[in-house]
């Protein structure tokens, strides 16, 4: 995968391009709640928190959250937007999480795992910061469990290019289980529709997905042209939904 530098690309448009409607956020919070212990408050980490898309909602639902994010620009936007008193954002990464050992009940990594350069170190660091029995909610795509969003087919080799960004599921599981973790759950979550196909096209034009960073200019142009033609046939139709994988891992 071509590395995405969020300090030079995507950060200006990320919050707009990847905005979630209230109902979509509630779908995720319910899915997270279903795989977390019932006690409240829980101390959480949002690792690769980006612009803080999930962080305040996690704090609202479960208890205090620390967002850990390597990109200065993404963190600045998160800090400027989040007013929740139980949220703090810190510089760091999955490989180097600046919180005490055994201090968190859970960590969420939402579409951040594929950016992690030193994955074995991240497995060790996540085990360090979680309490024994603590959970990692890994909302990741996998090359063999890919959500295949409806718009991807319009881009030349779209599916192959996007799938190649991600590891196969068994490889991710093996990285954790070989370090003593266990799989606590694997399923999919289907958000309600993100609006109309026309709305979705507008958001996709902001190119706030790692996928677009993998395409050359000709494929980008061809893909958007084909997508625009398809959407123009019925721009007000609801954007089709798709199912997104959520892997829950439990620390030893
Ligand atoms: C697709 S964004 C997801 C942001 C947020 N979780 C969300 O869903 O809106 C990926 C984020 O992972 C961050 N990231 C990159 N390398 C990372 C690493 N090694 N550890 C943790 N996060 C990382 C990026 O800076 C970026 O903010």
Structural account:
The structure is a single chain. The chain is 34% helix and 19% strand. The protein is an alpha/beta fold and 252 residues long. It has a domain of 172 residues: 3-Layer(aba) Sandwich (Rossmann fold), CATH 3.40.50.150. It has a 7-stranded mixed β-sheet. α3 links the parallel β1 and β2. The radius of gyration is 18 Å and the shape is globular. It starts with 13 loop residues before the first helix and ends with a strand. The relative contact order is 0.16. Bound molecules: S-adenosylmethionine. S-adenosylmethionine binds next to loops.
Strand percentage lies at 15-25%
CATH structural class of the domain at 14-148 and 166-193 and 242-250: Alpha Beta
What is the tally of helical segments? Answer: 9
- Helix-strand string: HHEHEHEEHEHHEHHE
Give, in spatial order, the strands making up the sheet with the most strands.
Answer: 3-2-1-4-5-7-6
Largest sheet features: 7 strands, mixed
* Rounded mean pLDDT score: 97
Distance between the termini: 31 Å
CATH topology of the domain at 14-148 and 166-193 and 242-250: Rossmann fold
Number of E-type strands:
7
| CATH homologous superfamily annotation of the domain at 14-148 and 166-193 and 242-250 | Vaccinia Virus protein VP39
What is the CATH architecture assignment of the domain at 14-148 and 166-193 and 242-250?
3-Layer(aba) Sandwich
Outline: globular
Ligand identities: S-adenosylmethionine
Query: Rounded to an integer, what's the Rg over CA atoms?
Result: 18 Å
Low-confidence stretches: none
